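Our preliminary data section would be incomplete without showing what the modeling component actually yields. Below, a chain of 250 amino acids is followed by its predicted structure, encoded as tokens that our downstream tools consume directly.
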Amino acid sequence: MSGGPVVAADTCRQALALGLDVSGSVGAEEWRLQIEGLAQALEDPDVRGAFLALDGAPVYLMVYEWAGDTAPRDLVTWRAITSHADLAQVSAQLRAQHRTPHALGTAMGQAMLYGGRKLSEIEKCWRYTLDISADGPSNVGPRPQDVRMSPELAQITINGLAVASTVTRDDTGTAGRDLARLGRYFQGAVISGFGAFVEQATSYSDYANAMRRKLLKELETVAIGQLDRAPHAVTAPQRAARHAANRTRL
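Predicted structure:
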């Protein structure tokens, strides 16, 4: 990205970018469940309370979808969440979306880089968080484990939401093992940074519940744990410089 920040935030508690998997393994009904699940999670009273926990220090939120190409699609552009009405409008904007074609494959590394570039559009936040949802490992483009320490993702917390790709289970619990395997993949190759974690959804029907749990954990951490770090907001150039210094020491 060239030029200065898209948004110059006076006080930004957290910049939160949500990347939704819409690869070939995600059917039309699963896509809708994912969109609706996120909208429902944003309408949850506890989640709304967490977004609005610190008056005068809003969370900035954006949502994009990604698949096997190098052109993820923004569903919700950056918005400062300062009221219940803001969250209601984000949910309405999500529900108004229509599914569009994307290239086949799961380019998770590319999606992570895109999310890092989007987060660089917000200056001087106390914390930067990227969320990647997926129902399978990356299989095209740069590998997540190769990009998560790149300058675009320096000083960013990367969390994951692993979604079981099937709701059926045989007598040996195959679906459960598949979800556990995907969770381990996120742990080993995707998540990174302070407090990073993986949430799990047993199916796309469970997406709303999983997203609710994840948002509450992320926003509670920032609201309580980051308050004393407010004077030390980090800009995008500072994140890249620190990352370069760390790599030099290594």
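DSSP finds eight helices and eight strands in the chain. The mean pLDDT is 85. Preliminary results of this kind motivate Aim 1 of the renewal.
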